[in-house]
Amino acid sequence: MHYPPFVATCRPRAGAQVVHEGWLLKRGEHIKNWRSRYFVLFDDGTLLGFKQQPAPGVYNDPLNDFTVKRCQLMKVEGPRPNTFLVRGLQWTTVIERTFCTATSEEREQWVAALYSVAKKLKDDETTTVGVEPVQQNGDRIFDAAMIPAFQQSPEILQKQTKKVVSHVGHSINLIL
């Protein structure tokens, strides 16, 4: 079975390396309770979540399995402190996943690792595919996912956030 490249499907490809791992609280997408999960981020963009910490190299039967390819990251201060959001495509639907860490330092580490992997995947994609304009009604339109990201480190990125208050009163820091 063939899946489009933007779809979160299965396990990391053979040879994928672990970039970051650890315990996170993940908020359910449908039932909005918080669950403790052990997440493993791979350099191919795969993010796997488990009920218990898996043995090194044994990543069978994850409870959560998705990609950070072409994702958006946002730090938020609600509904809990040290929360961050990962927004990405699953098939053609935008899915927003909410995570929480025990400390602000852990959140910074996770956001930096996720950003690093997502940026590398975007850079690899643009060097392989390139940015080609699409003609639509005479206008030149670019696939935004294919335009190279600005060249800044997560430390600089952290300082360039814009605080916004959402419609439910939560404070959100958008990473610009």
UniProtKB/TrEMBL annotation:
Gene3D superfamilies: Pleckstrin-homology domain (PH domain)/Phosphotyrosine-binding domain (PTB). It catalyses: L-threonyl-[protein] + ATP = O-phospho-L-threonyl-[protein] + ADP + H(+); L-seryl-[protein] + ATP = O-phospho-L-seryl-[protein] + ADP + H(+). It comes from the Eukaryota. GO terms for biological process: cellular response to insulin stimulus. Residues 17-119 form the PH domain. SMART domains: PH. CDD domains: PH_PKB. InterPro entries: PH-like_dom_sf, PH_domain, PH_PKB, PI-Interact_SigTrans_Reg. GO terms for molecular function: protein serine/threonine kinase activity. This is PH domain-containing protein. The lineage of its organism: Eukaryota, Metazoa, Ecdysozoa, Nematoda, Enoplea.
